[in-house]
Amino acid sequence: RLLFRQVQLLKILSELNDIEIIWLRSYLVPAIGGDEEFRQKHKNILQPIHTYLEADEDTMTKAALQNSYKEHLERLKLIDHKIRIDKKTKMPEFDNFTGRPKKSYSTITTLGRLLLKQIGIIDDLNQR
After folding, report:
1. Residue by residue, what is the 3-state secondary structure of 40-107?
2. Using CA of residue 93, residue 71, residue 124, residue 128, what is the dihedral sign?
3. Strand partners, 106
4. Looking at residue 61, what is its pLDDT?
5. Phi-psi region for residue 110, left (φ > 0), alpha (ψ -120 to 50) or beta?
6. Amino acid 122: pLDDT
7. What is the pLDDT of residues 14-23, one digit of tens each?
8. Which end of the chain has the least Cβ crowding within 10 Å, N or C?
9. 125 closest CA partner among 114, 115, 88
10. Is 23 helix (H, G, I), strand (E, B) or coil?
11. At what angle do helices 18-26 and 110-118 cross, to 10 degrees?
């Protein structure tokens, strides 16, 4: 059973690149101002890239790649996005640009924590 778990985690790990692992680790302490040393060390990766109508091609490319890292982590069930709900209608809010539900916040999943523990980034699964 332990071997199966390790094989499964190695399979998931083989699908990730270094930047995605940094993004996954960033969800371990999601609070603004939290985990400042880690965020400062990786600010060139973790700095949000925002797009706008007149954004140049380089900005659009960087934003698309950054978004793809997060979507890949979500597809692998390593992070989970909580959908923003309109307080009046009690319905999900949608992004006018993408048409997708707006995200309220994101959290690392148990599987994500387990993967970080397996590769030695965290020592304790209860670490927040």
Report:
1. HHCHHHHCCCCCCCCCCHHHHHHHHHHHHHHHHHHHCCCEEEEECECCCCCCECECCCCCCECEEEEE
2. negative
3. 81
4. 94
5. alpha
6. 84
7. 999 999 999 9
8. N
9. 114
10. helix
11. 120
Helix (H) or strand (E) holding 110: helix 110-118
Q: Name the DSSP letter for residue 36.
A: H
Long-range contacts of 66-70 (CB under 8 A, 24+ apart): 69/17, 69/19, 69/20, 69/23, 70/23, 70/106
Amino acid at 37: E
Torsion angle, alpha carbons of 71, 72, 76, 80, to 10: -30
* Dist. CA 72–CA 89, nearest whole Å: 31
- Specify the DSSP element, H or E, that contains 108: strand 103-108
* Residue for token pair 């927040």: 128
SS3 125: coil
